[in-house]
Design brief:
The protein has helices at about 5-10, 10-35, 40-50, 55-60, 65-70, 70-80, 90-100, 105-120, 125-150, 155-175, 185-195. The protein is mostly helical. Helix 6 runs parallel beside helix 9 and helix 10 (about 155-175) runs antiparallel to helix 11.
């Protein structure tokens, strides 16, 4: 294994933290599914996940964060940065999503769909998600600026990043209409539409 590969591989501590965070979320989703989001308490999640209160709040400051926080955005940015440098921004984003979903297990994809459905069904989560979209747009703008040699606050960069995030919002609307829809396919269709120039 090369030195670069060693540097890219998460440390044992980071892997354990990711496992703990994922375990808490898995138990929380199971409880939300069984008894509803509002009826589930943080104390019940802590007990089900067999972690201390301190550990829970280290990973998730609020109950909303258990649903909304994940590694999806950083993984997308990493997959985007791994695309060939001569690939234009929107096709690079499309390829990044395709690469990410190709490496997700069926269980991971099902959990992602479940979380999306939960967010769409709980008004408080839908409101909090808007803040997440703003952060995602900035992350994507930063990555696009780096690839293109422009500034992250360049209006054109922000416009393209915002268009991608807008496409994700359209995907969520489609998922609200059909919770069983294939998330990866919808994302690919939405970004393909951007890539084609947004004609109707």
């Amino acid at each position: 294994m090369s030195a670069n590969a060693d540097q890219a591989r998460p440390s044992l501590r980071e892997r354990k933290k990711a496992q703990t965070r994922a375990a808490i979320q898995t138990h929380a989703l199971r409880l939300f599914r069984a008894q509803g989001y509002e009826a589930t308490t943080i104390e019940q999640i802590i007990e089900a996940a067999d972690v201390s209160e301190t550990t829970f709040f280290r990973y998730f400051p609020t109950k909303e964060d258990v649903v909304l926080r994940d590694d999806f955005d950083p993984l997308i940015i990493g997959a985007y940065q791994a695309q060939p440098p001569d690939l234009p921004p929107v096709p690079a984003v499309r390829a990044a999503f395709a690469a990410l979903f190709a490496h997700m297990s069926a269980e991971q994809q099902a959990e992602q769909r479940e979380r999306v459905a939960l967010v769409l069904s709980v008004p408080r989560l839908r409101a909090a998600m808007l803040d997440q979209f703003a952060k995602a747009m900035q992350l994507l703008a930063d990555a696009m600026a780096e690839r293109s040699g422009r500034r992250p606050d360049d209006f054109a960069v922000r416009t393209v990043a915002g268009a991608v995030v807008g496409a994700m919002m359209a995907v969520l609307a489609a998922m609200a209409d059909d919770p069983d829809a294939d998330l990866a396919s919808l994302i690919d269709q939405a970004i393909a539409h951007l890539e084609a120039g947004l004609s109707l």
